[in-house]
Amino acid sequence: MPLFYQHNINESTRMAIWRIEEPEAFFLSRVPSHGSVTHPYKKLQHLAGRYALTAIFEDFPLEEIVIADTQKPFLPNDRYHFSISHSGNLAAVIASNRNRVGIDIELITGRIKVISEKFLGNKEKKYLNDLESVPQVQLELMTVYWSAKEAIFKWYGDGEIDFRKHLEITAVRHNGSNGTLDCVFRKNGGSTLTVHYHLVSGFVVAWVVT
Ligand SMILES: CC(C)(COP(=O)(O)OP(=O)(O)OC[C@H]1O[C@@H](n2cnc3c(N)ncnc32)[C@H](O)[C@@H]1OP(=O)(O)O)[C@@H](O)C(=O)NCCC(=O)NCCS
């Protein structure tokens, strides 16, 4: 069963992770092909993401998806708000017929440290530096921070977010393989968003629902 994680967040909102094991033809039986993605594996990831939307909402109108100037895919009639992410052989999706949503999935790897200066503010860096005696926890949490900010970027959808300036993670609550973050969002007058995350098979998946 390729849908290996599913979470019904509330009455209107569902998320899921699809493990990609099928050939392109399987997804093309249901997903309209636009030919915009040409790299073979990227195409498979793209198709799997779209397909997974129909696995959480059977009536999801894939053929109505359009791409905004910002590159955010959306449905013009807002029947569903949705967000898609892929990493390696996993595709994560979230969709809602009421709430705005954003999702991101990332493989946990030391490569995140190379870009950490670009997305971590000073207080966030200090919090993570204080975890240097537990390097695996530090690495997981750094990936969670990145994934959470990417999920917010997608939730927002209008681009122009500076991850250091506009997004600051101020609290983390970890519980087993799950957790939540508070993130101050310094755009549109400012607000605090709650981001949920889940650690699974060496990946982080983070999502936001408002
Ligand atoms: C757009 C972006 C979020 C995609 O993330 P990614 O890790 O490259 O790829 P993911 O697999 O997680 O997500 C890709 C999906 O996001 C969606 N997407 C693309 N652009 C989007 C946007 N502007 N808003 C919302 N969703 C978007 C699409 O559904 C896409 O998949 P699809 O083309 O198969 O449908 C990322 O490239 C980006 O621009 N991030 C912001 C970077 C940034 O500003 N960094 C500053 C600090 S370093």
Structural topology:
Blueprint: E1 3-10, E2 13-19, H1 24-28, H2 40-56, E3 66-67, E4 73-74, E5 81-87, E6 90-96, E7 101-107, H3 112-119, H4 122-129, H5 135-156, E8 167-175, E9 178-185, E10 191-200, E11 203-209
Antiparallel strand pairs: 1-2, 2-6, 3-4, 5-6, 7-11, 8-9, 9-10, 10-11
Helix pairs in contact: 3-5
Bound molecules: coenzyme A.
Rounded mean pLDDT score: 95
Largest sheet: 5 strands, antiparallel
Proportion in β-strands:
35-45%
Helix content: 25-40%
Please report the number of helical segments. 5
Distance between the termini: 30 Å
Any idea what the shape is? globular
Give a verbal description of the structure.
The structure is a single chain. Strand 8 and strand 9 (178-185) form a beta hairpin. 29% of the residues lie in helices and 35% in strands. The chain is an alpha+beta fold. A five-stranded antiparallel beta sheet has the order 7-11-10-9-8, covered by helices on one side. Strands 1-2-6-5 form a four-stranded antiparallel beta sheet, covered by helices on one side. Strands 3-4 form a two-stranded antiparallel sheet. It has two domains: 3-99, Alpha-Beta Complex (Ribosomal Protein L22, Chain A); 105-209, Ribosomal Protein L22, Chain A. The model has no long low-confidence stretch (mean pLDDT 95). Coenzyme A (COA) binds next to helix 2, strand 5, helix 3 and helix 5. Coenzyme A binds next to helix 2, strand 5, helix 3 and helix 5.
